[in-house]
């Protein structure tokens, strides 16, 4: 792991799967079945302290307090869009800031989580990479983002039905914590987010795509593609030098064959760069034989970047060309266009303000 997670005096209780919690309980001289009670307090009743777990003995509550941390995130600010999107800026125990977003859909509420403090991938269109990578998040710090979002939804009598791992950072560079996070939120005795309602997005860490195919179960995989050929993709995404497009697509085919699940290709449209009819035709040639879906993304403007949005009529022209070639394609609905919508923008603003 090139960048470590935060190592405080105590680990986060949210970093433990139920099986790991059972092991700890037995080692602490208690009963394994208490793990399900603790999970109920954490993820169903959503308490803020161990002292609220009233069906546990005082001795066990004291051991929990002495051993684990709880509630690792402090809300710095939140922005609420006219479309109902809620964007949180949270502070971690070591002072770093991360973003989490609630997005409203006709099929439910989706929570977009962050997996790293910053990012080192260096995509030329992304605000998340500004300032580089500071560290990985613990599994519990990722879990806590879903929990904090759910507490907000509790106020409205709603629940988080979907999770997308598309926030700040490259999830596959924090692979072990990612897998632990997925197992914890998928546990039907806890937050109970269905595997098919979870999507993980990667910029294309090829070896981890193979590993994810073997370990990820029925969790959906999305690939940040953004270009129909290797030369253009290298200009937009320097990671293509290390993991060329040809190798990336081989890994994608392995994932499809192994899981039987289709892959989503995320394709950001950047005015005059990758959005012309010939690009659409080339993209169709590239992926036309695969079980896949293309999600076209009209880019959000980022002040520190110089990309411009593709005109609306050209977005629909691009979509039409793909459809005519038999590609399943959608245009991503905009969320939070009236707030700091692009991933990493709110954190970047906060960093500027605190540095000043």
UniProtKB/TrEMBL annotation:
GO BP terms in the entry: rRNA base methylation; tRNA methylation
Textual note on the cofactor: Binds 1 [4Fe-4S] cluster. The cluster is coordinated with 3 cysteines and an exchangeable S-adenosyl-L-methionine.
Note: Reaction proceeds by a ping-pong mechanism involving intermediate methylation of a conserved cysteine residue.
Protein family: Belongs to the radical SAM superfamily. RlmN family.
Protein name in the entry: Probable dual-specificity RNA methyltransferase RlmN
Subcellular location(s) per record: Cytoplasm
Binding residues for S-adenosyl-L-methionine: 169-170, 201, 224-226, 300
Record-level GO cellular component terms: cytoplasm
Organism this protein belongs to: Brevibacillus thermoruber
Role: Specifically methylates position 2 of adenine 2503 in 23S rRNA and position 2 of adenine 37 in tRNAs.
Positions with a binding annotation for [4Fe-4S] cluster: 119, 123, 126
Originating gene: rlmN
Enzyme Commission code: 2.1.1.192
């Amino acid at each position: 792991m090139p960048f470590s997670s935060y190592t405080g005096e105590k680990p986060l209780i949210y970093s433990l799967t139920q099986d790991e919690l059972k092991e700890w309980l037995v080692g602490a001289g208690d009963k394994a079945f208490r793990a399900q009670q603790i999970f109920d307090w954490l993820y169903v009743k959503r308490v803020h302290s161990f002292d609220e777990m009233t069906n546990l003995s005082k001795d066990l509550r004291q051991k929990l307090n002495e051993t684990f941390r709880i509630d690792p995130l402090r809300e710095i600010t939140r922005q609420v869009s006219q479309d109902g999107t809620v964007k949180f800026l949270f502070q971690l125990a070591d002072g770093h800031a991360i973003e989490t977003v609630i997005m409203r859909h006709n099929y439910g509420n989706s929570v977009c989580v962050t997996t790293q403090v910053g990012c080192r991938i260096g995509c030329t269109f992304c605000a998340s990479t500004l300032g580089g990578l500071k560290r990985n998040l613990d599994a519990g710090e990722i879990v806590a983002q879903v929990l904090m979002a759910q507490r907000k939804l509790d106020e409205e009598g709603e629940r988080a039905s979907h999770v997308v791992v598309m926030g700040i950072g490259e999830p596959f560079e924090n692979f072990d914590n990612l897998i632990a996070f997925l197992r914890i939120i998928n546990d039907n005795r806890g937050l109970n987010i269905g595997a098919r309602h979870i999507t993980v997005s990667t910029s294309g860490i090829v070896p981890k795509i193979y590993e994810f195919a073997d370990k990820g179960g029925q969790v959906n995989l999305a690939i940040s593609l953004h270009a129909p050929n290797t030369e253009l993709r290298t200009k937009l995404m320097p990671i293509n030098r290390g993991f060329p497009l040809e190798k990336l697509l081989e890994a994608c085919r392995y994932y499809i064959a192994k899981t039987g699940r289709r892959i989503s290709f995320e394709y950001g449209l950047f005015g005059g760069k990758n959005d012309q009819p010939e690009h659409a035709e080339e993209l169709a040639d590239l992926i036309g034989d695969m079980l896949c879906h293309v999600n076209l993304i009209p880019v959000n403007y980022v002040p520190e970047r110089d990309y411009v949005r593709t005109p609306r009529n050209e977005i629909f022209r691009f979509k039409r060309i793909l459809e005519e070639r038999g590609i399943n394609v959608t245009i991503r609905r905009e969320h939070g266009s009236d707030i700091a919508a692009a991933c990493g923008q709110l954190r970047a603003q906060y960093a500027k303000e605190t540095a000043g």
